[in-house]
Design brief:
- The chain is α+β, with helices and mostly antiparallel strands.
- Helix 5 crosses helix 10, helix 9 packs antiparallel against helix 10 and helix 9 runs antiparallel to helix 11.
- The chain has a 6-stranded mixed beta sheet, with helices on one face. Strands 1-2-5-4 form a 4-stranded mixed beta sheet, sandwiched between helices.
- Strand 7 and strand 8 form a beta hairpin.
């Protein structure tokens, strides 16, 4: 807003949607009025203008900006207020608060609601407050639909958005012409814009950086020693990011810490890998946790915990009242707490959208030969628990004993093969700092094969070697 626009507003005088404040010494009063505008028809607060309409301006420092940001955070529900610093003469500014109509009234500032009557701001009557509460409940606007705070299109990960469209087209859930749309058109089609402004769901799905306003878009991941949280950590991480970044981080963490049992069926040369938790079941559980969690609780986050005998994924927010734990083990209706996010996952081809996610988890585990997952509620949230076929302590104990019997070079061979799917002898030799003769290396490979660490495929020069027991 420039000085000409400000002058035109000042000439109108104070009214039901215009308020003057001499300086930020009246910041509390200014934000009471901003709260009243949110609860009414919107309006403009000008700081640096006297009651009589004289433009005097004021100095603006970093501390001034921080004070205003703190006052905005005192408004609930969370809301975006456009703050502009319009320069005038003598290095002074007019601070402009442009307040749109609030879509989630009643709003409160510092714990109290306000309303605008003519050109005055007053405490809201209890009767009006209760009426607005009822109306807000009827609107049924969830957290994901509320305007995003301080985010524009440039702060989103455009590559991830394009990947969503590409996978959606490949899965025949998005029309091929959408590949040519610009980012704003795509987000509009996904209903991630309201009044040309991003909503919270867009930030959760695609933000390049979620800090500081969306710090609860985070996953805590830990590998505990033992079967409860009283043991020490083997690994402990916190990762912040959008939904797809959190998914990737969780899968990588699980891949590092979960064993994979590999074996051959009689009469077949193809190796069969049996992970402790099927990757598709893990993805389904993570998607459910992201789409169904309660984002209004900013102090909670997703949690992935790995113990010796199980993996747990927990998210805050219990089941909706339409569902019970028993319903999850059979076909049921879908009641996503965050419908916009769930729709994007569906369009990308990652979920089916028919309440079949938990049933598919059961199917993936049964096909993998691992125990059925357990669904439980605790601490105000919902958890999926994947129990292992064998506790990891039991799996690793004989492997550790066998490792003690190996030579340093044999251990190095295992380390090399651990990092690759399959390798030929010449490739293994190239990775050893002081390589032995090929015949000696073949003898080492034969020992490791006999002890059950590795297996081979092919014949003569086409023979490749690979790990059976990940160590």
């Amino acid at each position: 807003m420039d000085i000409n626009q400000i002058t035109a507003i000042v000439q109108q005088g104070e009214s039901h949607n215009i308020e003057f404040k001499k300086s930020t010494a009246q910041l509390k009063s200014a934000f009471e009025t901003a709260c009243a505008f949110l609860n009414g028809q919107g309006g403009v607060v000008l700081m640096g203008v006297s009651d009589k309409g004289k433009i005097i301006g004021q100095s603006v420092t970093d501390n001034t900006r921080q004070e205003i940001a703190r006052e905005i955070k005192k408004i609930e529900p969370s809301v975006f207020i456009d703050v502009d610093y319009a320069p005038i003469e003598n290095n002074k500014f007019i601070i402009v608060l442009e307040v749109s109509i609030g879509h989630h009234a009643p709003y409160i500032y510092a714990g109290r609601p306000y309303e605008r009557i003519q050109s005055s701001t007053v405490s809201m009557s209890q009767h009006l407050y209760e009426q607005l509460l009822v109306r807000r409940g009827q609107l049924n606007h969830t957290w994901e639909e509320q305007p995003a705070q301080g985010y524009g299109l440039d702060l989103l990960d455009h590559e991830e958005i394009r990947r969503t469209i590409k996978e959606g087209v490949d899965n025949h859930r998005i029309s091929v012409e959408v590949l040519q749309y610009d980012i704003k058109q795509i987000l509009s089609n996904f209903n991630l814009l309201r009044d040309n402004q991003l909503i919270n769901a867009a930030v959760v799905l695609y933000a390049k950086d979620v800090l500081p306003n969306y710090a609860h878009c985070m996953i805590r991941m830990a590998r505990f020693m033992g079967v409860d949280k009283s043991g020490d950590f083997m690994d402990n991480q916190r990762v912040y990011g959008n939904a797809f970044h959190l998914m990737l981080a969780a899968h990588e963490f699980a891949r590092r810490h979960l064993p994979i049992a590999s074996f051959f069926e009689p009469g077949k040369m193809q190796r069969i890998d049996q992970p402790a938790v099927p990757p598709l079941a893990l993805r389904e559980a993570l998607l459910n946790a992201i789409a169904h969690r309660d984002y209004t609780n900013r102090s909670a986050s997703l949690a992935l915990s790995i113990f010796d005998d199980r993996l747990e994924i927990w998210s805050n927010g219990e089941l909706t009242r339409e569902l019970t734990i028993d319903d999850l083990r059979k076909a049921h209706q879908s009641y996503p707490r965050n419908e916009k996010m769930a729709t994007v996952f569906y369009k990308r081809g990652w979920v089916e959208g028919w309440g079949t996610g938990t049933v598919r988890m059961l199917g993936y585990c049964q096909k993998n030969g691992t125990p059925d997952p357990e669904f439980i509620e605790y601490s105000g949230g919902f958890a999926v628990v994947f129990h292992f076929k064998e506790p990891m302590g039991e799996i690793l104990k004989p492997v550790k004993n066998l490792l003690l019997e190996l030579t340093p070079r044999q251990k190095k061979i295992i380390e090399i093969l651990n990092s690759e799917e399959e390798m030929k002898i010449k490739d293994i030799i190239q990775r050893i700092k002081e390589p032995p003769a090929e015949r000696t290396l073949r003898d080492d490979l034969a020992v490791l094969k006999k002890k059950g660490f590795i297996q081979s495929s092919g014949h003569a020069r086409t023979t490749t070697w690979f790990i059976i027991k990940k160590t």
